Amino acid sequence: MAITQNQRDKAKQFQEIHRKEGLFVLPNIWDAGGAKIFEQKGFAAVATTSAGVAFANGFSDGEELPLTILLETVQRISTKITIPLSVDFERGYSENAEEVYENAKQLLLAGAVGLNIEDGLPDKSISDRQSMKRKLEYLNQLKKEFALDFLINARTDIYWNQIGEQKSRLSATIERLNSYLSWGADCVFVPGNISVEELQRLTKEVNGPINILLSKNLKNINQLNELGVKRVSLGSSVSRNSIKHLFNESNKIKRNDFDSLLSDSLSYDFVNQFYGMGEEK
């Protein structure tokens, strides 16, 4: 595997989406089939969801999924779509910056043109600032080594993990995000229970594009656009919605109730033609 000109073009395209005026929605998927659906619907890019990829392979979220499976998933997706693919890299699968560098290299060689890296730790704390600084410096070193301007999205889990007192979270988040941008992040991500008022301050005081996670109180796209949010991620919501459907159907099947399965499913021909699998067998 090697970095291709096509991949460099996709990386440039993904960077440009973040520089354009206005907000964009980034669907999070876990396999090539889902990625192709969102591409067909006209989305400019897709990203993996760490939770969704883990759930689809029988693991819980939080780097429980082996890196080898993530690499295989990224390679499958990247070869089936023509739009940019960003990858939820969690902590980089290590707190050692050199190991993160090696892991990131493999993901880029598998076809990623964006990497999402976070400071949240498994014990619900967050990593120290110097650890994130080293990781971001190593990722930027990879940009030069590969001559690939992939997009680095740096996430802080201050709100997600409810770090510190509520009154201090906003200022701590702003400080972290601006540090991440100064250390080479192209975009910064703050998931969690954030109010509209807090988001308004974030967009004013953070010196770069802001990515938020779709939530019940942050779902009005027009409002988010007016506030200056650049990117809205769907996170694991699509995955969890699909899993809910499987739970519901499995309950019906257990009762020998096949009505919705037979009446509400897409036809074999439609799905087969959509994925270009050839004639009906």
What is the gist of this entry?
The protein has 281 residues and is of the alpha/beta class.
Please provide a written account of the structure.
The protein is of the alpha/beta class. It has one domain (5-235): Phosphoenolpyruvate-binding domains (TIM Barrel, Alpha-Beta Barrel), CATH 3.20.20.60. The protein is built from twelve helices and nine strands. Strands 1-9-8-7-6-5-4-3-2 form a nine-stranded parallel beta sheet. Strand 5, helix 6 (129-146) and strand 6 form a beta-alpha-beta unit. Helix 2 (32-40) packs parallel to helix 4 (67-80) and helix 5 runs parallel beside helix 6. The protein is globular, with a radius of gyration of 19 Å. It starts with a helix and ends in a 7-residue tail after the last helix. The mean pLDDT is 96. This is Carboxyvinyl-carboxyphosphonate phosphorylmutase. Pfam families: PEP_mutase. It comes from Candidatus Enterococcus dunnyi. GO terms for molecular function: catalytic activity.
